[in-house]
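Quick question, first post here. What does this chain look like in 3D?
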Amino acid sequence: MAKRKTPKAAKPTKISNEHLNKMQTIINNLNRGQMEIGNLETRKHALLEHVVTLQGELANIQTELKEKYGTDNINIHTGEISRDGETN
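> Answer (accepted):
Ran it through. Tokens below.
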């Protein structure tokens, strides 16, 4: 039995421009999304640090209030001191 000598179909060496463009668009959008997530995480980190700083400042002023007024139980809107067990 003789082997057939038919040429094999050539396999493509490159994808179509349409597929390439679609793939590039998806990858670009993915990269943009990941970059935006990174930007948001950076902003989040900065805000978390700011919150920690503010919490420290609040703790300091609460200590000052306790030393000066004997309590840090203050009405934030009126500045009135509320003492435990006291009715206004």
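Residues 18-67 form one domain.
The longest helix spans residues 17-69.
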